[in-house]
Design goal:
4 copies of one chain form a homotetramer. Chain A is of the alpha/beta class. Chain A contains 7 helices and 7 strands. Chain A is globular, with a radius of gyration of 16 Å.
């Protein structure tokens, strides 16, 4: 059964999107790549700073509200439908809810063949890369580095602390069935 | 039956994305907004300059290949699934294939309640706005201004030549059921 | 004496940057374009949210501190030096300090031939364009629409309320000596 | 004599801009940061694809024409003037002309206290980071990795192949006088 969906889960500045672009470059078939950023940008601007939507606290913590969760549920169904319609899809996610988040995706993805990948990065290194990237909201990297992996079950883990995005992508590509 | 999907179709620089943001701001419910740009950005970089993917000719013409069409078909199924899962969705599109493009969307959207909106703009005005926006590939606005509306059937047309995005958004909002 | 510097002053979302790109497109000589955004992006990230640097209040008001003013003074000297070295330069500014801001630029530009242009826009229209552009900080357009023109002396004024960027650019181009 | 200007020279994807943001974050005084990208963005769009301006060949090579050189000369004078007016400035450059480029800057910077820093990166690693960054024009990293350092004289060299941006920034900061 051929892998249809790759889910990468890791904290902010852990290097997920670099791995995604390398995967898209080295995999022989074309893969679509979507992330939580795609969803956030699709939402009304007002939901990006409201209790019902998403809130970026000054310490870098991210809190999402009930309206965000409702739209996210539909979004996840949509990604699953793209897979069922034949597209290969890479999902780049930040599972703030840990195992609960994984469960939501598992239910929607159903019988699609999924490779679950944990993208880890030493918290201090992720924090320094956050500075190098110039993100306005500092603190997200440190705040998310560990919490997003709590209770998660992965097929594979990569660590970007001392490995290039391309190396991690090759490791992941070797695990596709 | 309440409108679940709004499809805006218009050429490059016709002002669709401004209307989308105004709609998201004035509509009481939260609407997700996706466009052909979302899809293109989700594709591998290599497909953005290959015969199989999408090609931007130097005169501004856009040609899409078979691999693009295959991923697009899955993308459309995904958007339809989001609507069926309860999300209200605004789709911002450039129907290079005119009526054929509409047919593809109609099949996928099925029994969802859709408002079809044509976003028109005088070709010369769109071309001058293309310069003002600083898009690198000039000529797209003029090349697409009329062709995207060929054979289309709309519930509503707006013209941004002499109307602000917000005015157009209010007109569209008044037609939602 | 040939115009060496064009200074465009107007509030946020008044349409300055669109006019700048049209000017660069229609003027026969190559003009460099810089704006207050260029300066802000050149500053340390920390100065974009500190009392010493620049602060974006939640109502859209912008407050700049002493360290911002010091770096800005050097920046203005740099722009003037580019003009003296032979470059034609368009400056896209938001004179929060009105006439005081103009005086600072006048001192630095000295004997360079400058065309001072006021870019006006009806406050309500600018506010609606701010929504259409999707800027996160709403309120800047309304907050700045009038205050930036207080006490200013212009060679020329354009109003983007009902004129396209390209029309405004042609009007300005016709005033160059 | 206190360092007034830091010039970082390195090829595309060598990691210069990450180092710049880390330097701005860790240095106690506020430093302005400008790069060749700032200059390119200030030019008319038409110069970004013409023989007189700048040209990005399909193999990633960059060729600049006479009008580019003329505007660049004025730009360099402007940066020098900002330094003389008291601003501390970090310049992020790609010296395609090697030693000739350095000479142009040295003449303009004159008696300002400058720290010249070479930012090196293994060519294959830079090429893989180029893929991870998703730059459309691939080949720039490999094409520039070595040529930009030919004939250069540095006060200090850093190598990003196996060091984080923050580590490199700390090394540079330790060399400021």
């Amino acid at each position: 059964m051929k892998t249809q969906v790759i889910v990468l889960n890791g904290g902010s500045s852990s290097g997920k999107s670099g791995i995604v672009r390398c995967l898209q470059a080295i995999l022989p078939d074309p893969w679509l790549a979507f992330g939580v950023d795609t969803l956030v940008q699709a939402m009304p601007a007002s939901m990006q700073s409201s209790d019902a939507g998403i809130e970026f606290a000054s310490n870098g913590e991210v809190i999402v509200g009930p309206e965000f969760r409702a739209l996210e549920a539909a979004w996840i169904e949509g990604i699953a439908a793209m897979g069922r319609a034949g597209a290969r899809v890479i999902v780049d996610e930040v599972f703030l809810g840990g195992a609960d988040s994984q469960l939501r995706w598992q239910k929607a993805l159903g019988d699609l063949s999924v490779l679950w990948v944990g993208v880890k990065c030493d918290s201090a290194i992720a924090a320094s890369r956050e500075v190098a990237r110039g993100d306005r909201i500092s603190g997200m990297a440190a705040s998310q580095a560990n919490v997003v992996h709590q209770g998660m079950v992965y097929d594979l883990e990569v660590d970007t602390s001392h490995a290039e995005s391309m190396e991690c992508a090759r490791t992941i590509a070797a695990h596709l069935t």
